[in-house]
Amino acid sequence: MWARNGNAARNQSFYYAQTNYNTAFLDCDIALLRFIASNVCPEWFLNAIASSFYLDECLSYGSNPLLTEFTPKVVTRKEWVDSLIDGALRLILELVVIPWNIGGSEVKDMEREIVAALAIGDLTHSKLKSAIPERGTRSPMSDEAFDSLLTTLAVYSEPDQGSHIQQGVFRLSEDSWRDRFEPVFCRMRATTAREFSDALLRAENIERSRLNRSPGGKSCGHLWIPYRLIDFNSAGDALRLNRINRLLASPTFFAITYEILTMHVDEGQLSDSIVQQVIYLLTLSVAFISSKQFTSMCIDDRTQTESPHLSALTRLPFHRRRKPEEMDERTFALSMFTFTPSGKDSCSLLTLVVRIMRLLLNEGDTNADVDSNFATVLREMIAVSPEQLVRVSGCATQYTARFLNLLYRCDKNSRRILDSLMGSETEDSPRKVASDVDDAESRTKAEKRLAAKRRQEALLAAHKKKSASLMQKMMLREGLTQTQMDAMDTTEKSEVRHYECPICGDTTASTLSHPVGSLVSIVNNYAVEHSLPADDRPVSLLELDAETIKNNGCTRERHMMKHCDVTRRMLLEKRFPVFADLVQVPTGVEVRSCGHFAHMKCYKAYVQTLWESPPLRVNPLDLRVDVSCPMCRAPVQGLLPLAPDIDIERTRSNLAEKSEGSCVFKRNVLAVQNSLKKTNPPLQESDVENFIKYRQSFTNFIMRCEKWTTYRGDIGERLRSKGQSFTLGLAKANCERNVLLSELNISDRSNRQLPTEHLIYAARYEGTDRDITFANYQWRQLTYGFEVDGEHEASPAEETSTKDERPVEANDVKNAKCIDDSEVLASSTVAAKTALIRMGREVECDSGTPVMLFDMKSALTRISCYLITNDYLVNDDKKELLSFVYEVIVWATAVRSALLAALHLSIAQVKRILKHSSFAQVDSPNDNMLASVARSIMSKLFSQPHVNVDDLLRENTDEVDVLAAMRYACTDLSRYIAQLWHECRIKRLPGEMRIGHATLEELHLFLTGDERLSRSYLPIASLNKWVEVISRWIPFIAHALKMEALIWRRFTLLELPSSYDDVFSRFFGRTCVNCGSIPRNPFICLLCSELLCLDTCCVASTGGVMPDNEVERHAIQCGSGVACFLSLNTSLIVIVTRHKAALWGSVYLDAHGEEDRNLKRGKPLYLSERRFARLRSDWVRQSFEQNSMSFFNFEHLPTFLRDAHYVLSL
């Protein structure tokens, strides 16, 4: 019984707490009061209002002696006066201005409701309809009429226009703001004072923009509330409700307004909003008295209500006035505006308004002539016709002048007073006399400035001569020649950057003694690794589900890039274990910066202040702590130490000077090899200890990032690299994701480029002897053809392919065997190492990693790291060496791509290629060179004794575009290295270049200065060696290599059908694969289309190895720890990661751009392309930063889904 009664009471309170119910009840109350006020004596009604709001006690705080003698009994505090007076004036305005049920149509009433609701805030279609007050059990108009009216009054704003996802909303049009906005009605409909303030602020912004656009117009200081005049000449109604306008001509009305204005002018006690309401009421009073609707005031009605017990206002002089017999009622009513209650020395209502207007003019410009300005403004406003005064725009001057205009036109006494005020301008107004500029004094000043300039130039010339002499003496003392001085780079200075710490407020450089770090967060991001082969056609959610049904419920396996990476790592560990963990740097972890910095000591203190009970002897820099940025409140999980600014003297090596080709190549090879060393920056003795602390702090940061990868669920986790390789992987991940964002046309305003430079700098000093050895090993293997001696050296080919160019043939290879670096590493004694090194390095041995199994981006990043951070090289020399490294590796990439393409060829296509007929349609110079290399590679590969063509290519049936694969590989590498240069400040990308859409020629021009590839960087010896070495392993690694796609396409999320009914009908009622029951909360994975169950029936204990819930387990297996699901019963997108979940929103909206969470409204839902594009963008960036979205513990997900429609926001 208690439960039943309690639920009933709760339901009633829920219904009656809604705005539309309360508003409907309020309408009835106001309508009843209006009916009463129209049928009783206006004096009695106004005194009843004054008594209810204790206006006599409120006005007793003024200066009128008739009221100051009155002792307040209720209003005992002066702070209450404003609220009570404002409430009384508000009630009078609502009764007089708002036409309640008098000859108005439903359309007009609905129009007023829509304008008031949209003035308070932009609303969705459903919220707008729910904001309309209830009138009976049926809606006042049909949906079609409502939508038609809404189209006239408002402008529809498409969903997701801003930085955050939002629903489609209706915004009040500018014409509606100007012609239909009624502040009195809007205030009545506002549930709080803040809502009405927001509406006034929006109206002010619209008005300012309109005034600024108008010819010669400009917005003034503070705009007044845009009150509109009402029509008093309308026909009467059956209930005679328009008789309520008599309130505007009663003595009590004039007494109340007079006392309020007196309090404001004499003591300034009341707020501006009250003064605005009083001026508006007086303006309405003048308009009513001068209208046809005005009738004679009944003296009997007035005298009958003169009862002292109602309020003390009846004692005021306005009630003692009697109309002379020769004066008509209209003239007598208008005389109230010029009546002086306390005699000739006191003010009238007119003079009070004039004083207010003069005070407002004086506030605008204290040095201006108030009399002149007042006369000018008044003359301009009086010239305006009354028809143009229904609505005025501007500040207080325009609204007070409107009142004076109407009064000037209908009252002779007022006209005489105003004429006298306007006529006093010429006699009393002071004039400012402008002083002339003295020409002689101006010429004297110009001559002095010219003489001072000549003296300054003479001093600079003497100082320059003295400096040159001093430089010559110092050169003689140091024994330096002019040639040696010219070799020193005196033009390039180390750029010292300064960073602002928001914690302490200081702006300093990042030095070893005062280190600065970047506030960063660490996220898992596998957007690049989820790429699919280009020949894997894009499929939608329903198509992939249909294939799953055909396969008896088994989801089709899709070979993503991350699967190929794992296969390659396992292959390297099995066949080439020496450097297996260094060949490919790990990715999937992204370091993201908000763009703000902090001193390390300040950040440490900041984190400690956020801990309730800070642990003893724990350094916050060594822990992963979830805090917020003190500046932008972005999530922060650590501090990335910035590269310290070390000022050293750089020597120009003149590597950019051109000389004979082979000499340049050998010189550059040696210069790069000299940089691949384990060195420390040039430090003073006092900085050595600080540098050790810097390295330790960065090592701690990398260890925190490594711990972040423990949740990824990667099957190749045991092969995860650490130290330098992991640091390079973080930098590589940032560059790849920035290129990906450009490819997908996703704009990202975050500071993703900031961490890369500092990660590259620290990676150099994270390297161990093993890392240095491997870097040298890779560089020697890549430049093998430039280092061979005498008879083994091959002359570089021509830079362009010509008809006379001889392709690389099999007999070009010298089958000499040499010792590999891996054998050197495996040697135990120094003597053995020396002996093995002296045996040479011509052909790769079985235990070494072949060049064709290198990850070229990783190799390029590792080698470039040492060049970028070389403190002794000037920037021009760095660019020359980096460009050389790029051209060497881009050709190695092309060769590797051609070898992979050869493994995918059919036997028929191989025969055509070897006959030189497959690339007959090639016209581009770069494609000609790539085609020539491809033919040479295949000719060499398929002539090797280790390769059985029939067994290797038997299963291949599809044609392969070899040139497209090679061009894709070279372009992909070029985009990556260009982005790396840009982020490391080696060479900035042009503003017009979109890195994700740049062609190979554009990128090659940016990186090398020439659009065309050069075959000089691919010696025949290198090509022959690479092909021969990999051919030995073909029988053992061909299957793994064939898994790698020749061209990758980006994959984000599955395509969704346009109608939600299609999704719902396909998956609703389907049984769960695990438990066999129909789930109450079905989830659909948008990566693989699998149907999952959120219910407890699919919870399985895994002993902590994997999450217990099926949804979380699938997030690890399918999305590497982060997954995107569609909740079928709610139409919401759910993001699941790291034991947390978040409601992203819905990509399915109704015809008005609204979500239908939990399908409560039952409207047809359609796919929003803009919303789905936003979801893809957030998914690629792994950045879910909407205002309406926050992550919560996963176990609370069912509760959040159940109550999702209650927390729906715009």
From TrEMBL:
Disordered as annotated region, ranges: 421-446, 790-811
UniProt domain E3 ubiquitin-protein ligase UBR-like C-terminal: residue ranges: 849-1180
Pathway: Protein modification; protein ubiquitination
Annotated protein name in UniProt: E3 ubiquitin-protein ligase
GO CC terms of this entry: cytoplasm; ubiquitin ligase complex
Alphabetized UniProt keyword annotations: Metal-binding, Transferase, Ubl conjugation pathway, Zinc, Zinc-finger
GO terms classed as biological process: protein ubiquitination; ubiquitin-dependent protein catabolic process via the N-end rule pathway
Skewed-composition ranges (Basic and acidic residues): 428-446
Catalytic function, reaction form: S-ubiquitinyl-[E2 ubiquitin-conjugating enzyme]-L-cysteine + [acceptor protein]-L-lysine = [E2 ubiquitin-conjugating enzyme]-L-cysteine + N(6)-ubiquitinyl-[acceptor protein]-L-lysine
Keyword set includes Zinc: yes
E.C. designation(s): 2.3.2.27
Domain E3 ubiquitin-protein ligase UBR1-like winged-helix: 110-201
GO molecular function: ubiquitin protein ligase activity; zinc ion binding
Function: Ubiquitin ligase protein which is a component of the N-end rule pathway. Recognizes and binds to proteins bearing specific N-terminal residues that are destabilizing according to the N-end rule, leading to their ubiquitination and subsequent degradation.
Record-linked Pfam families: PRT6_C, WHD_UBR1
Keyword Transport: no
Family affiliation: Belongs to the E3 ubiquitin-protein ligase UBR1-like family.
Organism: Parascaris univalens (Nematode worm)
Phylogenetic lineage: Eukaryota, Metazoa, Ecdysozoa, Nematoda, Chromadorea
